[in-house]
Design goal:
Pfam families: DUF6265. InterPro entries: DUF6265. This protein is mostly beta strands. 11% of the residues lie in helices and 54% in strands. It has a single domain, classed as Calycin beta-barrel core domain (Lipocalin). The protein is built from one helix and ten strands; from the N terminus they run H-E-E-E-E-E-E-E-E-E-E. A ten-stranded antiparallel beta barrel has the order 1-2-3-4-5-6-7-8-9-10. It starts with a helix and ends with a strand. The relative contact order is 0.16.
Length: 154
């Protein structure tokens, strides 16, 4: 019985340390920076994230299907009021915006751990220094929310 209690204490302590939330600082998520390639929506995806600077990180995204761009995104993660927020805008292949001029799609931060950045509706998961998954909650054509997984490699 003594060994079981010790094991549970060690397991609980080590598990808590692995998932301990980190401060909402760009420095704690800089592993997202880089040029990432993957596949989604039946096409090829590319997402390029900058290193943190000026209180933000920025990214561009594009989806290519049958050799043609389907859409682009501009994304930023900003430090705001002791937290982080991810904001993005979509653009068609002709660079005409989907959202209105002053509108953004916003994802407030929920939590950062050593290998995850969890925003409301979007999660970044570090698999290794050269691989990450991004999970995005998207409403399908019927208005039902589903989570789409993007697997990226550098």
């Amino acid at each position: 019985m003594k060994y079981v209690i010790i094991f549970l204490l060690i397991f609980t302590t080590s598990h808590a340390q692995l998932t301990k939330p980190l401060e909402p600082k760009l420095e704690n998520i800089k592993w997202i920076a880089g040029t990432w390639h993957g596949e989604a929506f039946g096409g090829i995806t590319e997402e390029i994230w900058s290193e943190p600077s000026g209180g933000s990180m920025m990214a561009t995204f594009k989806l290519i299907h049958d050799g043609k761009v389907v859409f682009y995104e501009i994304e930023v993660i900003r430090e705001v009021e002791n937290s982080l927020i991810l904001q993005l805008k979509h653009f068609g292949p002709d660079l005409k915006g989907w959202e209105t001029k002053d509108e953004t799609v916003d994802f407030p931060l929920k939590e950062i751990t050593e290998n995850k950045v969890i925003f409301e509706g979007m999660t970044f998961e570090k698999i290794s220094s050269n691989e990450m998954n991004i999970y995005v909650d998207i409403k399908n054509e019927d208005g039902i929310a589903e989570t789409v997984k993007f697997n990226y490699k550098k």
